[in-house]
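Homework-ish question, so no full write-ups if that breaks the rules, but can someone show me the predicted structure for this set?
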Amino acid sequence: MQNINRNELSNMAPRYRAHVINSLSGFKSANLIGTRNNLGVNNLAIFSSVFHLGASPALVGFITRPHSVERHTLENIQQTKHFTINQINENFWRAAHQTSASYGADECEFKQTGLTPEIIEGVDAPFVKESQLKYSLTLKEIVPIELNGTLLVIGEITHIMCPKAAIKDDGYIDIESLNTVMVSGLDSYHTSKRLSRLSYAKPEQLLTKLSLDGEAEQLFT
Amino acid sequence: MQNINRNELSNMAPRYRAHVINSLSGFKSANLIGTRNNLGVNNLAIFSSVFHLGASPALVGFITRPHSVERHTLENIQQTKHFTINQINENFWRAAHQTSASYGADECEFKQTGLTPEIIEGVDAPFVKESQLKYSLTLKEIVPIELNGTLLVIGEITHIMCPKAAIKDDGYIDIESLNTVMVSGLDSYHTSKRLSRLSYAKPEQLLTKLSLDGEAEQLFT
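A: Not a homework solution, just the prediction itself:
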């Protein structure tokens, strides 16, 4: 085991340190956020900080920096109040990574990367046609994190698109069957292999394996 | 493709809805958070909402509800200002899930699940011995999310423990080699399979595959 203390952390070269710290939070979801500015220019940016905030109301959040490459995402959301989140899958993970290049505000990442915008009525932001699980949100709040100047952007889900077969009997969505990928560190992409679904944990009771549809299957031996 | 609108979302049974919404954010990191109360009772709880907030200072955040099963985690952090985050791996994912059972404040999840507390000097919270990548944090801020009454707890990293071989030349930590698992939905656990590391994206430049150590390897064909 290597022990790294606060001093050693502070003395790391910035890029090395960024790789280390970004590896600590574990596997991260890989999503493209779609937005559009007031002039109608579509924007697409990759984010690994999308997370669940609550089911009722249905809230999802992500972290952004005010002056980063992805600032167009923030500016567009402030203009239109709308955005889409599109799970990245094994068919377009490299095009998704390419959206992190520093394109100008008038350059559309869809055109630059070959991904296809998909528009539905009532949503003022593009979906990614190639994504198998995607949803639109309306901006609810932007919470400033004063410790480091980042922002937590919170949206409420308004519309979900997902293949019917992936939605199981109890509402669980089999995102592995959609070939959804994840990120580790800053730049490593991975697919998944299911160990199992597990029963709701209770004190003094053994866990059972659940089927994909959420049915109790068997005890572990 | 199944389309689900806001009305249909509202009308879902609460548990079904929870499964759907929890599946939307993609694969989530699986971590055990270790804390200790003023009486010296250790606590361990599983969280799927740990995320990277910044590398300098090194900040990590997670979401908790004030009155959930995991409230002991929050109360303990408020008491001692310390906590540990321990990546869950394939060797103890079921024991980790079992920590979500509703144990009393005087019951220690380590004893209930067979996991082993590990103490180091200067950290007033237990690590999980079985975890291969773990770190301690001091509380920096608790940000209330007023939209749904959740809290964003932010800590600064003070000490990291990780096998030396997993830390690559440029600081990337190969968490796949540590058998770190991830969660989808509320209860499905997965291991990972690497597609590749990718080069830093620039406009008008093709992405290259990177070696584990971050060396440019080859163009994709």
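Now go work out the reasoning yourself. Hint: The helical segments of chain A are 6-11, 14-24, 71-80, 93-98, 109-113.
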